[in-house]
Write a structure and sequence with these properties.
The chain contains 12 helices and 12 strands.
C-alpha cells in the first residue's frame, strides 16, 4: 500500500441510538478518508458525534441501545461491518488501536501496568509471558517511561497523569497498529505534558508509519499534527480538506466561528467571537441546515434546504449554501469582531 492510498474509508456512516424519547441520530451520513502514514484531525464541539464515529470503526458501539444503521467502514479493502465478531477481535488492538477519551480511567487499578500491556501482547502476538514482559519493557522505554524495569510493576495509582497517558499510548502501540484512533489524547493534562505527548505521537508515527485519527477541540494541535481536517457539526461533516486550505480559507460559517473563538495574545476582547447558542438536541435537529439557528449568514434557503458537501477547492469541500463565498469583511461586521482570525501552521 503506497502513501497515496487510503488505509481507511468511511462511507455514509449512520449510527443511531434507540431511546425512550426516540431515535438519536448521533452520526448521520459521515464520509471520511485517512491515507497511510498521515493524520486526520476531527474537530467540533462536544455532542457533534466525534467519539461515536471513532467507536464505530472498531465496532465498539454498545448494542442496545446503539446500532450502526448504515454505511461502510473499509479498512484495507475490507468492510469491517461485514466481519464476524471473532475476526474483529483479531483486528482490535492489533491492526487498529484506540486511545479513549478518558485515559485516566482506562487502566485497571487492581493490575500492574506491566500486566495490562502484557495481556494485549500475549493475546494478539501469541507470546509467552517472559517474551511479552520483554516487549513491554521495550515499549515502555520507547514512550519515555523512566526506569521501565521498575515502573513495569507499578499500579496506576503510583503514576502521574502524564505517565498514565504514556502507559495508555504504550498499550495502544504494543502491537504496532496500522491505525491509531486518538480521542482527545491530551485531555486533563497540563500544557507541558500535552506537548510531550504530541511530540511522542509524532515521533512514533514517523517510526512506525502508522495513520492517526486525532479527535481534539484544539485547533492548534490540528495545525501542528494533521495533514487533513474534518469539521463535524450535529452528526455530519460540514467541512473537509487539507489543513492549509481550511485554515487559510475556511468555507463554512461554523469553521469561521471556531477559528475566531480562539483567544490570541495581544488581541482585544472584540476579536474573540462566541458562537451563539448550543449544538442542537439530536432528537430535534432543525430543518434545513443544522447550523442555521446559530449562523449570522442564515437566509430562507438555509431554513428549508439542507446543504451537502461540495467542492470549493482542490480536495476542499464544504456543506454550506454560501460555500467559499463568505465575505470576510461582512463576517467582521456581523460578528462584531475587530479582525478576521487566520490560523497558520
Amino acid at each position: 500500500m503506497s502513501n497515496s492510498e487510503a488505509i481507511l474509508k468511511i462511507k455514509d456512516l449512520k449510527v443511531y441510538f434507540d431511546t425512550d424519547a426516540g431515535v438519536v441520530k448521533s452520526v448521520d451520513g459521515v464520509d471520511l478518508e485517512i491515507k497511510k502514514g498521515t493524520t486526520l484531525g476531527l474537530v467540533g464541539e462536544s455532542g457533534c458525534g466525534k467519539s461515536v464515529t471513532c467507536l464505530s470503526i472498531p465496532r465498539l458501539i454498545e448494542s442496545p441501545p446503539g446500532r450502526i444503521a448504515g454505511g461502510e467502514i473499509i479498512y484495507k479493502g475490507k468492510n469491517l461491518l461485514e466481519l464476524s465478531e471473532k475476526d474483529m477481535q483479531g483486528i482490535r488492538g492489533n491492526d487498529i488501536s484506540m486511545i479513549f477519551q478518558e485515559p485516566m480511567t482506562s487502566l485497571n487499578p487492581v493490575f500492574t501496568i506491566g500486566d495490562q500491556i502484557q495481556e494485549v501482547i500475549m493475546l494478539h502476538q501469541h507470546k509467552t509471558s517472559a517474551e511479552a514482559r520483554e516487549l513491554t519493557l521495550r515499549i515502555l522505554k520507547k514512550v519515555g517511561i523512566p526506569s521501565p524495569e521498575i515502573r513495569i510493576d507499578d499500579y496506576p495509582h503510583q503514576m502521574s497523569g502524564g505517565m498514565k497517558q504514556r502507559v495508555i499510548i504504550a498499550m495502544a502501540l504494543s502491537c504496532s497498529p496500522d491505525l491509531l484512533i486518538a480521542d482527545e489524547p491530551t485531555t486533563a493534562l497540563d500544557v507541558t505534558i500535552q506537548v510531550q505527548i504530541l511530540d511522542l505521537m509524532r515521533s512514533l508515527q514517523d517510526e512506525l508509519g502508522m495513520s492517526i485519527l486525532l479527535v481534539t477541540h484544539d485547533l492548534g494541535v490540528v495545525a501542528s499534527m494533521a495533514s487533513h481536517v474534518a469539521i463535524m457539526y450535529a452528526s455530519k461533516i460540514v467541512e473537509y480538506g487539507p489543513v492549509e486550505q481550511i485554515f487559510s480559507n475556511p468555507g463554512h460559517p461554523y469553521t469561521l466561528g471556531l477559528f475566531t473563538s480562539i483567544p490570541v495574545v495581544g488581541r482585544g476582547k472584540r476579536d474573540l467571537y462566541v458562537i451563539p447558542g448550543n449544538v442542537p438536541d439530536p432528537l430535534a435537529f432543525p430543518r434545513g441546515c443544522k447550523f442555521w439557528p446559530r449562523c449570522v449568514f442564515a437566509e430562507d434557503i438555509c431554513r428549508s434546504q439542507e446543504p451537502f458537501l461540495e467542492n470549493i477547492g482542490e480536495g476542499h469541500t464544504a456543506a454550506c449554501h454560501f460555500r467559499g463565498k463568505i465575505d470576510k469583511h461582512l463576517w467582521k461586521e456581523k460578528t462584531n469582531t475587530g479582525s478576521f482570525l487566520n490560523i497558520s501552521r
